[in-house]
Amino acid sequence: xxxxxxxxxxxxxxxxxxxxxxxxxxxxxxxxxxxxxxxxxxxxxxxxxxxxxxxxxxxxxxxxxxxxxxxxxxxxxxxxxxxxxxxxxxxxxxxxxxxxxxxxxxxxxxxxxxxxxxxxxxxxxxxxxxxxxxxxxxxxxxxxxxxxxxxxxxxxxxxxxxxxxxxxxxxxxxxxxxxxxxxxxxxxxxxxxxxxxxxxxxxxxxxxxxxxxxxxxxxxxxxxxxxxxxxxxxxxxxxxxxxxxxxxxxxxxxxxxxxxxxxxxxxxxxxxxxxxxxxxxxxxxxxxxxxxxxxxxxxxxxxxxxxxxxxxxxxxxxxxxxxxxxxxxxxxxxxxxxxxxxxxxxxxxxxxxxxxxxxxxxxxxxxxxxxxxxxxxxxxxxxxxxxxxxxxxxxxxxxxxxxxxxxxxxxxxxxxxxxxxxxxxxxxxxxxxxxxxxxxxxxxxxxxxxxxxxxxxxxxxxxxxxxxxxxxxxx
Length: 475
What we know:
By secondary structure, the protein is an all-alpha fold. It folds into 2 domains: 13-217 and 261-464, Up-down Bundle (Growth Hormone, Chain: A), CATH 1.20.1250; 219-260. Helices cover 77% and strands 0% of the residues. The protein is built from 22 helices and no strands. It has helices at 13-22, 24-39, 43-49, 51-57, 73-99, 102-121, 126-154, 160-185, 193-199, 202-214, 219-224, 228-239, 245-259, 264-267, 274-288, 292-305, 310-338, 340-365, 375-393, 396-407, 410-442, 445-464. Helix 5 (73-99) runs parallel beside helix 7 (126-154), helix 5 (73-99) packs antiparallel against helix 21 and helix 15 (274-288) runs antiparallel to helix 20 (396-407). The longest helix is centred in the last third of the chain and has 33 residues, at 410-442. The N and C termini lie close together (9 Å). Mean pLDDT is 82; it is low at 1-5.
């Protein structure tokens, strides 16, 4: 590992403020995760853009199975195309992050996202909706590339985990905000509430854009781009001490090594970088195959399928969003105390058991043409989903982003983050595009499928994942 022990540093206001502003990229991402599932359960939205689904759900057209109400490829494409666009955009974002800096990438992200919001809120047909979602996905790709790297590089190592998890905390806040907005706009008479839901996504994008104008770029990025004196000034400012020479010299050395690497994506495939690459890819795949985004994207749709009424399904999504936020705060307080591995392993047990019990309840009580779940069982399902979400929120949610940003050296960090974002968005696209069809095919077995994935990923952590708590960042 490059570098020795922990460098001297104070926890300065400029670091806290910069991290809070940058982490609003997560708020933007989270809002979009939550808002899509809410609007796709609104009758007015379905009637205008997805009339086939509207007939199945509202007019109660006869179905082979209640599990297949929302099984529609166009509806799934509305949700999933964002993540495919983000996957493609992250390759461009990696180049800009390295050549122009983390701050410039965040600015571009905000502008693109605002354009996507405008298209979606004003949509007159499905084509406008899809164009808007593609722009939103491009903004997400740029934000997910730059923000975790920015947070890891600017934070002192003793609180790096907590500050990095601000990104995930803002994702959960964005999901909760979108759930509250969906619940309120669904009550607006006239059937235009979905436009307000989609349009309010511009607020977090505006916050990220304004924040990117105000923050300084990281010393790592400035030195990497040849701005040595400016990098030294910024390093002294964010560390709050005069003795920044040891850290500066290491950054300078790392930058020289990084400049010798002309092809970072080719370099990352070298033998010395393979363990980090395998860990990075595995964490992103496992994060998505916990089933969390199936719940977050489609929570109202899922609850409607299980027999909840429209208002009740949106209200349940709000409860889940609140649990998600609170549990992410738990992670901020515990990640640098307990470590990464213990949180991942404990959460694996909790998620496995909760999904197993959900599968049993739904398998026994929700048949193809059954009546609604009784109130008692409906409440129990919501509680179990909250238990699952809480475990994810203090473990696999934030740590799947934190750990990759910690393990790569400077010369491959942007490439490594790009691969992490790419794999994550690819798996997210697959889940978003396939979930409603999987629900139709597997029925209650969908939860058994995801619980099996949780068991597999917990085994990976137990035997193959090293602890990165308090390990100085590879410069």
